[in-house]
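User: Can you predict the 3D structure for this chain?
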Amino acid sequence: MAPRSCALCNDARAILKRPKTGQQICKDCFFKVFETEVHNTITEANLFKPGDRVAIGASGGKDSTVLAYVMKTLNERYHYDLELFLLSIDEGITGYRDDSLETVKRNQEQYDMPLKILSYDELYGWTMDRIVSTIGKKNNCTFCGVFRRQALDRGATALHVDHIVTGHNADDIAETVLMNIMRGDIARLGRCTAICTKGEDTIRRSKPFKYAYEKEIVMYAYFKKLDYFSTECIYSPDAYRGHARAFLKDLEAARPSAIIDIIHSGEAFEVKEEIKATQKVQQTCKRCGYMSSNDLCKACTLLEGLERGMSAAVITDRARRKLEAEGPTPADLRTIPFFHPPTASASPAVEVESTA
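Assistant: Here is the predicted structure, written as structure tokens:
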């Protein structure tokens, strides 16, 4: 059988089949359609304005590495006029994050972008290795997720950026829709598919890869020969998300459009007003100043549990009440530095780490 020609240019030999569409295309056309689709996602959602300072959440993995490369490429090609930074969070996971950060440092040189690294140890006084050794592997992803979100906002504030972009792809978002359905968390369905989110006291955060399939991101990294770290987090196999991921892969095998279909279903959900009314009003954490729906934000609550030796019991509201019943918070308890929200004033020049 003669080799097939590219379905798009009808000239070069097709060397890959797009998981997203099933088209058999050549390498150059794949690069073009992948980059164009990301560009269209950015422009249709009006994610940026000229002059924005944008921090790219960089882990060293395939998604964030491809995101950094594509953002640099599109910024130069379409004249977005953005100032790009790499922002990495060091969770303190030996044999995983320490190695992946070496990849980020190489990306910094390859893409000529300033890099800032903020560690859990620096911010919270705990590493994930220490947390897991204290609480075990159950629920450790809850700690990491809560701590990581606040760390990203704090790192971005230190950089005086206007925007954070993350490498969350279509698979990630579809998994989140499924997880919220399986947990009965209908209220979150109204916002889990949003391409851009922003709290009153946080920096605008968006997902340029919202409609990009994970498989295509891997293919892009492979054919572009990008330098990325491919090892999975050593603590993630026990995460609840793994069940949603396995289910989604089975659906994709039977129907490749399932990923996008699930995202569109999530976008189409309309949350009833009575459900919205049950949501707590956003306020400011009395201890650290970060956004919260309670007097204390989740990060402060989790940190207090760790410090008081009740770490396994501070994830639920019942556990929080148990923590409060233990008596007043000790005066010498370790706390998170106070968070000063970004202001709308002009962004001063800041010093970032060339190496870390």
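Residues 280-338 form one domain. The chain is about 45% helix and 10% strand.
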